[in-house]
Amino acid sequence: MTRAELIQQIKIKKSFLCVGLDTDITKIPEHLLAEEDPIYTFNKAIIDATSDLCVAYKPNIAFYESYGIKGWQSLQKTWEALPKDCLSIADAKRGDIGNTSKMYAQAFFDEKQSGLGFDSITIAPYMGNDSVTPFLDFDGKWAIVLALTSNAGSLDFQNFKNESGLQLFEQVIDKVNTWGTIENLMYVVGATRGEGFIKIREHAPDHFLLVPGVGAQGGSLQDVCQYGMNKDCGLLVNSTRGIIYASKGHDFAEKAREEALKLQQEMEAELIKAGIIR
Amino acid sequence: MTRAELIQQIKIKKSFLCVGLDTDITKIPEHLLAEEDPIYTFNKAIIDATSDLCVAYKPNIAFYESYGIKGWQSLQKTWEALPKDCLSIADAKRGDIGNTSKMYAQAFFDEKQSGLGFDSITIAPYMGNDSVTPFLDFDGKWAIVLALTSNAGSLDFQNFKNESGLQLFEQVIDKVNTWGTIENLMYVVGATRGEGFIKIREHAPDHFLLVPGVGAQGGSLQDVCQYGMNKDCGLLVNSTRGIIYASKGHDFAEKAREEALKLQQEMEAELIKAGIIR
């Protein structure tokens, strides 16, 4: 999916919602456990109930990998069920030396080889240039690089400051910017500190940002939009638990839709406020 | 495998060799391509030919994941073929927020859930405390955290210096040290700059270090030992291409053994020189 196509979807759906598919078998409705593949069955129902309200889906690869071969089968089926008008994000936090990152890129981008053809993947930048650039060599695919995350541990290293006062996450953005373009690079920026977006936008005014941490992790959509939105929207705001675990009953998909709709409506108001849609 | 058991194996085998299983289907002998699972067949032959000469095996997870479900099946069989007297290392470079890192830990440590029960896993530290500590919660398992890697891009961020002159990789070691012990934490330190080990040993005098980059990547075993060895050896030196791709013919396993034997003999000499064995 190209940048232009993504922006078009945001305008059509009046939404910049990303639905996280961190599907945990201990949290899904009990009646699904009788299914052959409960995780896939759950995901398919969530996707069908929300796909007109969101522009992206983000399976968290750990939740599949933790069940080994069986989990990888659920992931394969889930990927196949993702609608083509949504950006598919493999939330994998991969990154290794060049030849290995190339293999990870094939794992998530090269459908002929691996069975999976995600549009994008999240990347950990610690190993530098050759760990990131192999993901940028695939036409129409995106690398979404960790910049400032929303978890407690994010302050351990991401705020590490050099003698000029530049923090590591700023250095990451400045360097990584030179390796790709706004057509194939995004950054992960946590929502838990709204004003944090001011600094991010100084370094990456035009890039799309993938924003976890709204909802269960405590971030506010309004703050994120106030400080993080740009003229093309430039935001994909993720929600997981608030949507997919809205109910543990037979109505889980309906309740998920209701929660997604609430967020879509808030997002529509923000897009109107910013003059991106009418 | 505990620290004491690992040190014992090093003394018994007179070796601190780790064999990397970065098995690339385009580089293995052509006659194996007729096998049902060429990657596993190759790995099994390499393991059988080298297991008395090394103390660890390190499958590089990307090389399996790049073939999707089929690759994961090769990984599963490979893990089952690893001998119990060798430390098994999932070279996965994982790391995410706490609940997700826990899932990754289950993927590689929790045999009952995932089918895989590796002894250790490599971890990317960018996301900080909660991305690392879930891997430390498993008895008898190890987190091997990236500190100073051997690739070209390692200088992009790992050398980022604060106002006191402390570099990021030093900050990583200092912080991560406080989260675990020498019984469940190791660091990845590339071999390409031997003197780099002096600084590493200032911050982590007693930890085991996993050292890639000897051989194909240009590092010298002598330099690594001179600057990096401690009284318990404290090193696991990885070699991949020099061993597993020593021949593309029917003799690939014999040639792999010959190369592993050369390294084992050099290592034996270093262990004697250091007074660790006689």
Automatic annotation (TrEMBL), chains A, B:
Domain Orotidine 5'-phosphate decarboxylase: 16-256
Top-level lineage group: Bacteria
The EC number(s) this enzyme carries: 4.1.1.23
First and last residue of the signal peptide: none
Catalytic activity: orotidine 5'-phosphate + H(+) = UMP + CO2
Cross-referenced SMART domains: OMPdecase
Key words, A-Z: Decarboxylase, Lyase, Pyrimidine biosynthesis
Involved pathway(s): Pyrimidine metabolism; UMP biosynthesis via de novo pathway; UMP from orotate: step 2/2
Pfam families the UniProt entry points to: OMPdecase
UniProt GO molecular function: orotidine-5'-phosphate decarboxylase activity
UniProt record similarity statement: Belongs to the OMP decarboxylase family. Type 2 subfamily.
Protein name: Orotidine-5'-phosphate decarboxylase
